[in-house]
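Predict structure. Chain length: 320.
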Amino acid sequence: MPKIVIPDDAPPVLATSPSYQVLLARTPVDYYDSLPGSIDRLLERIVDAEVVINIRSSTRFTAEVFSHCPHLKMVSIWGTGTDNIDLDAAARHGVTVTNTPGVSAISIAEHCLALLLAVARRLPALDTQVRAGGWPRGRMMELNGKTLGVIGLGAIGRRFARIAQGIGMRVVAWTMHPDPSLGFELVSLEELLRTSDVVSLHLRLSDLTKGMIGAAQFALMKPGAIFLNTARGPITDEAALAAALTNGPLAGAGLDVFDAEPLPSGHPLTKLENVVLTPHCAGITPEALEAGLRLAVENVFDYLAGTPRNVVAAPAGLIS
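Prediction complete.
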């Protein structure tokens, strides 16, 4: 068996998983339950590795990292996002990269619904006021009959769109890879922003999507609209979002992701009463955690068996 390293299980999730025991039953593993914290420390841990299981997106696999790891053949990511991996550099250095698509789709889509209801019904503010002896009324949105605009029709976007349809919302969508067979009404991004009562973001972070939703896009949105982001913070211009929440047109937002995580104390978004904030936890349910960890381990076994799955970068540039 090749040398396998887990360089960044901090705080530990894989170590307590049944999937880790399955892995250990087949091969020894070099395991670390602290973050590397620097490229030098990461290289100390993985320089002789042939396979790396990447747990935390804060661990960055740059071109420099790949150039200093001559034995590395595979990186198995726990999670869907690949923005912490230089995929082109991986392919150039003969490294196959896999991820775990779809395993958190149900959990994240349910969280989107929770954020939407919390914002539309002003649940945090109402709870605070009732606890303080108040008895507020009004200023809530009924969602039945309203239009949801879904930006990105991956597994999560599709799941949330169907949930929204289930509560009586009309769904329109924009995606980078249009597929009419998915059964959703596809529109231009501009039309989606202009016509949607709720806009929900479901794109991967990449050079194409970074800063994609900024002041110009928020200005197109309907007065009183709600914005949801459970994808990645840098896809939006955070300052423009705060301005749109303060001065319009947005009535509120539900956010699980941010430019800087954890969200710094005193951040402008924390001072806005029309925003519901959660700590990048949409996909962290026991069911989703275990499904993702299991698939990250299975991806290693499949690669070693010569039948790689869920490939996002490969030496020949093939994606499966």
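Summary: The mean pLDDT is 96.
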